[in-house]
From TrEMBL:
This is Uncharacterized protein. SUPFAM superfamilies: TPR-like. Residues 50-74 are annotated as: Disordered. The lineage of its organism: Eukaryota, Sar, Stramenopiles, Ochrophyta, Bacillariophyta. It comes from Seminavis robusta. InterPro entries: TPR-like_helical_dom_sf (IPR011990).
Length: 229
């Protein structure tokens, strides 16, 4: 029996939690490939039913949930301005794979989730091994996830936490490499989201506190200087 996008995502999270980062990366990549297959098959069969609105299926999708509680306890670890949001996202969706493609917003939401989970895997592996290639791959995937998240219009509640996690973890990598302009951009994006009415309406208190913690510790964005060789 062929594994669904949801099955593969959950398997990838299991590997990630076990520290099997290679297996996690392969499984999340398989989930993305599976999603592309479903997309291609659906578009080929019928291109007339897709809609940019998700109103007809909103009541059948649960919010993508993180795999554990947020905690700002390691904000100052290694003097990094950002604390790694070390949580993957589960897709507790009650839809079939084909129904994902009935909504462009939902398709982008699922794609954003899978890209973020894969990026987090490379991110963690890069931190563990010190390989810049893994961190560069993580940056590329986070950026793609951020782009897709920007296109989610009708599922703000579901996408808000994911986009905050994306910009936070991008900031974590940029801060590690003393890229001050990119750090500033990530903080601006996070602050803009936190100041929006949607964040007050949809974010849980612990998540809001996690992402706003930087601004209590760093009221002004510092100019990062690379350490002397």
């Amino acid at each position: 029996m062929t594994s669904t996008v949801f099955d593969l995502n959950n398997q990838g999270i299991h590997y990630l939690q076990q520290g099997s980062l290679g297996e996690a990366a392969n499984t999340f990549q398989s989930a993305l490939m599976r999603l592309r297959e479903v997309l291609y098959r659906t578009i080929k069969a019928d291109t007339t039913q897709r809609s940019s609105s998700s109103s007809s299926i909103d009541n059948r999708i649960a919010i993508p949930t993180r795999t554990g509680p947020s905690s700002p306890s390691n904000v100052l670890q290694n003097e990094n301005q950002f604390s790694l949001f070390d949580q993957a996202f589960i897709l507790p969706c009650r839809l079939s794979e084909s129904e994902i493609l009935l909504s462009v917003d939902l398709e982008n939401l699922v794609s954003c989730c899978l890209l973020y989970n894969l990026a987090l895997t490379y991110h963690k592996r890069g931190l563990a091994t010190g390989k810049s290639k893994d961190l560069q791959q993580a940056v590329s995937l986070y950026q793609k996830a951020a782009t897709l998240g920007d296109f989610v219009e009708e599922l703000a509640e579901q996408s808000l936490l994911q986009i905050l996690a994306v910009f936070n973890n991008l900031g974590h990598i940029y801060s590690e490499h003393f890229e001050s302009a990119q750090v500033s951009g990530c903080m601006d994006s996070i602050l803009m989201i936190l100041e929006s009415s949607e964040s007050y309406e949809h974010l849980q208190e612990e998540d809001y506190n996690f992402f706003s913690w930087h601004f209590f510790l760093y009221p002004e964005i510092p100019v990062w200087l690379a350490p002397a060789a």
